[in-house]
Amino acid sequence: MYRNEIIGGKNHHLGYGEDMTNYVPEPEVQAYIEWVEEYPFVLSANMHDGDLVANYPFDDVRSFNGRPSYTMSPDDSLFRHLARTYSRSHATMSTRTRACSIYSRTFEDGITNGASWYTVKGGIQDYDYLHTNCFDITLELDCIKFSSESGLEKEWIDNKDALIQYMYQIHMGVKGIIASTDDMPIKGAVVHVGGPGINHDVTSTKDGEYWRLLLPGTYTITVSAEGYFSKGFVVEVVENSVTPLNFVLSREVP
After folding, report:
1. Residue 175 to residue 111: CA distance in whole angstroms
2. Which residues make beta-bridge pairs with 208?
3. What Rg value do the Cα atoms of the chain yield, rounded?
4. Is 140 a catalytic residue?
5. 33 and 40 in contact (C-beta within 8 Å)?
6. How do residues 158-206 score in pLDDT, each as one tens digit?
7. Under 8 Å CB-to-CB from 254, ≥6 apart: which residues?
8. Count of H helices and E strands in the chain?
9. If DSSP codes are grouped into helix, strand and coil, which group holds residue 215?
């Protein structure tokens, strides 16, 4: 998973086969890969039971020994914000003081870095972050691994406000259209965040759309695409708002 990081390669949209030599995805995994490539997401969460915590990337450790240790992504502060948004809006996730019966620990503020808890290779939240434009976290929603039907209404009530607040986080950072001077959308343009730099780029869709979740601050957003001159703007990102920022790129002269 960290091959490109080690050799100085791309920090986004890692080729699926590059780190998974001779691996043939199960049909449902292949279906998911094709789905997120055809319909790109801004933000997502995968959910299951077994504990009560919001888990954020990375899930896979960088160390060769494979032991659990805090393994931050370039967007660690943003992921902590996303996880905390969910946990603090949940009925009990951020405030409980007793561990689930099958584990011996609780989580401060109801959040945890995935790899600091236990390591997972090939997990969905790492894949979404490294291969798509999507920011994804894992939500453990109940200490009981397989909840009974009678408990589903309470789970909905406990999670409703958290789900709404989490979805609202798509309205942060910058977004816009990347097009050529002849008003044609540019697919696959690379969007880089600088000042402060974040070593994780995103790319534009087939319709020239892009989005980049960011915490409040001043950033330099630079866009580059093969065959075009790069362009950058300094932009102020404010809290609870998304900043529109479109780019028109000129073709390089042969």
Report:
1. 27
2. none
3. 19
4. yes
5. no
6. 999 999 999 999 999 999 999 999 999 999 999 999 987 899 999 999 9
7. none
8. 6, 12
9. coil
Whole-angstrom distance, CA of residue 195 vs CA of residue 233: 11
Place of tokens 């949940």: 90
pTM higher than 0.85 for the full model? yes
> What residues have CB less than 8 Å from 232, skipping those under 6 apart?
194, 220, 221, 222, 223
Q: Please name the residue that has the structure tokens 């609780």.
A: 106
Q: Could you tell me which of 110, 111, 99, 113 has the C-alpha nearest to residue 62?
A: 113
Handedness of CA 70, 123, 82, 42 (dihedral sign): positive
Q: How far apart are CA 231 and CA 222, in angstroms?
A: 6
Tell me the pairing of strands 51-56 and 173-180: unpaired
Calpha distance 234→221 (Å, rounded) = 6
| Residue 49: closest CA among 119, 117, 146, 148 | 146
Tokens encoding 75: 């967007």
Distance CA 203, CA 243 (A): 17
Indicate the DSSP class of residue 137.
Answer: E
Catalytic one of 5, 38, 140, 252: 140
